[in-house]
Amino acid sequence: MQKYVSKVLVVVPPAGFSEETLRHARASLFNVHVGTWSVSTETEATVVGRMQDEFLVDGALADANIDDFAGVLFAAGEGDRALAENETVLALARSAREQGKLLAAWGTSVAILARARVIKGLAVTGTERWHDLPDIPTMLEAGYKDFVFETYTALLAPEKTPAEIVSKLEKECLAILNKPAMREKLVQSGFQVQAKDGKGHMERVKKEVEMFRGRIRQAGIKIK
Q1: How far is CA 58 from the centre of its chain?
Q2: Thinking of the domain 6-115, which architecture would CATH place it in?
Q3: d(CA 11, CA 137)
Q4: Which residue among 48, 98, 187, 209 has its CA within the 20 to 30 Å range from the CA of 68?
Q5: Which residues pair with 47 in a beta bridge?
Q6: Residue 129: which H helix or E strand, with range?
């Protein structure tokens, strides 16, 4: 039987959390003999993750007391936006910080730590301020010229795809991305939607190819 040297509180969003990351985090703690106790705002039924996996929490968020744990882990997912505005959640983060206990979060749930003022956001590296952290400036606003580095997702077609097909796909994709319901769904999943046409995309690709080529040369990196 596994004997735990300590236990960590895991706060799980009521829906849309990342099951694979949650499993990995709990397994990593288990491997070093640290148990977990999971809570959520939803306790009458199982909570459902992004891939529709069901997860049964151990108790209610309202009953959680950081004094009983070695630290707290905030799981990421669509519901973590609501958690970042939940005073009980923010109080847990502040109490853990004050007591010098473990504080952990991943993905968009880092906003919980920022909202609780237990970490200080210096800047974001995108072209715009992050919607969940509007008080944190971009690197550009902080005075770093041309400093933009962000995760970017694009749709590409095979090289010989007929132009009329590319045009139709581009039009339909832009229409879908500009639908309020789709934009809100993507925002809840941790994306900031910047719908661009093919021309705008290729301009970005060209700029980044030149940027990384310069960085590679500067660092002396060579392919063997």
Answers
A1: 24
A2: 3-Layer(aba) Sandwich (3.40)
A3: 28
A4: 48
A5: 55
A6: none
For the chain, what are the domain ranges? 6-115, 122-149, 163-219
* Three-state secondary structure of 3-62: CCCEEEEEECCCECECHHHHHHHHHHHHHCCEEEEEEECCCCCCEECCCCCEECCCEEHH
Helix segments in 42-147, DSSP class H:
80-83, 87-98, 110-115
How many C-alpha atoms does 90 have within 13 Å on its Cβ side? 11
Cβ pair 45, 17 in contact under 8 A: no
Write out the chain's pLDDT in tens, 224 residues. 566 779 999 999 888 788 888 888 889 998 888 999 999 987 666 787 777 778 888 888 989 999 999 999 998 877 677 888 899 999 999 999 999 999 999 877 888 998 899 988 889 888 888 877 888 899 999 999 888 888 788 888 898 999 999 999 999 999 999 999 988 888 777 777 888 888 888 888 888 888 889 889 999 998 87
Per the CB < 8 A criterion, the answer to whether 6 and 34 are in contact is yes
In this structure, are residues 41 and 61 in contact, taking their beta carbons and an 8 Å threshold? yes
| CA dist., res. 111 & res. 13, Å (int) | 13
Closest alpha carbon to 154 in 196, 105, 122? 196
C-alpha dist (Å) from residue 137 to 13, 118, 132: 27, 18, 12
Give which of 60, 57, 73, 61 is closest to 112, Cα–Cα: 73
